[in-house]
Amino acid sequence: MIIINSTEQYTFTLSEKVTRQKVKFKNRYGIVLSGDLYLPMESDSSFAAVAISGPFGAVKEQASGFYANQMAERGFAALAFDPSYTGESSGEPRNVASPDINTEDFSAAVDFLGIQKKIDRNRIGIIGICGFAGFALNASAVDKRVKAVATTSMYDMTRLMSKGYFDALTAEQRTCTFEQLGEQRWKDAANDSTSMSPGGLPEILIGNEPDFVKQYFDYYKTDRGFHPRSINSNGSWTATNALSFMNMPILSNIKEISPRPLLLIAGENAHSRYFSEDVFKAAAEPKELMIIPNAVHVDLYDQTNKIPFGKLESFFKENLK
Length: 321
Description:
By secondary structure, the protein is an alpha/beta fold. The chain has helices at about 65-75, 100-115, 130-140, 155-165, 170-190, 210-220, 230-235, 240-245, 275-280, 300, 310-320; strands at about 1-5, 20-25, 30-40, 45-55, 75-80, 120-130, 145-150, 260-265, 285-290. Strands 1-2-3-5-4-6-7-8-9 form a nine-stranded mixed beta sheet, with helices on both faces. β8 (about 260-265), α9 and β9 form a beta-alpha-beta unit. α2 (about 100-115) crosses α3 (about 130-140). It is globular. Residues about 1-5 have low confidence and may be disordered.
């Protein structure tokens, strides 16, 4: 373990009741992950802990750190980390994601937490936000060291990339996408480089964007949530990023989380709500779906009046005994 002091830019203020240490740890693929470990200021006891990551394309100085700060205030050790190939974590090329490696990132976080002297390795949970909620569920299904898992504003990125929003992608469109991605691979191979997607959030809004794009813009492109290392704030994914996501569904074994408890939290007006509802239907007991009135997807990134931290506190205190 490496621990150094951090004075980096964060999108939130560190609680006076909490300490924050920058840490590094490896996943089983040898990628060095960068995280921030949040601890309650005054306690000599052995902590229950939560590993936190997300949203997809965000960094630990944004929503995951915000959650970790709040959970540490409530008595937990909380690790917010940058996924492989993003933020301050290692991995080349940059700005690429993987259903397998990003699932492994959560288990690597559990590895790290379980060898800390002040953390009880039998009391470790996971919180996944947005796209990393799906990876959190996938990791929990196979990693029995995870005693409880909660998600907020969940996306299943493999379903989204494979089928589109609300599963609207046709078989013909899917085939066309694969053909385009194959051509892009030849271009990258010929140029010995990795091309970046022309997508990503626009630099300015012209007014006719879908509501959820406007909401993402309001978080990632303004002082509210902008961070220079965040892909969603200041870049895009690689042009071939969707390939493995379109071919490797991550939630096939969702029932294997049981008998450990599952909490799904979604906004009433979130465009992503159906992901949480469908996982709730597919998962085995014990499970709970909590719908936040009048909330949209990004409200659960940083709005303390919308994020049910009291519920998250009670859920993990009850299940990380």
